[in-house]
Amino acid sequence: MNKPAAYCSAALLILAAAFSGSTLAADSKPAAAAAAPAAPAAAAAPAREITKEQAVEMALKAHPGEVTKAYQDSKKGKQTWEVKINGTDGKKWEVHYEIKTGALVSEESK
Description:
By secondary structure, the chain is an alpha+beta fold. It has helices spanning 3-43, 52-62; strands at residues 65-75, 78-87, 92-98, 104-109.
C-alpha cells in the first residue's frame, strides 16, 4: 500500500471510530435524560410558551369583539402578549398574557 492510501485508510478508521463512539454516547444520553425529567413532569405540568395567535384566541374567548392590536409588551415585570379588543359589550379591553406560561397577567376595560 502506498503512503497516501494508507493515510486515507487510517483517517477513515479514526473517523469511523469517533462517530461510532459519539453515536453510542448520544443514544445513551436521551435514555438517561428522559428518565430524570419524568418525575418532575408527573408532579407538575410544565408551562408552555404561547404564540401571539393563541393569546388573541384566549382574549377573544374572554371578551368577544374585534381585535385592534396584538403585540409583545411587558406588564408587571413579565414579558406578555398585549391584545387590544373593541368588545361587543361596548368596552375597549386590554388583556395581557404571560408569554412563558400563558397565564393572565391583567385585563382592563376602558
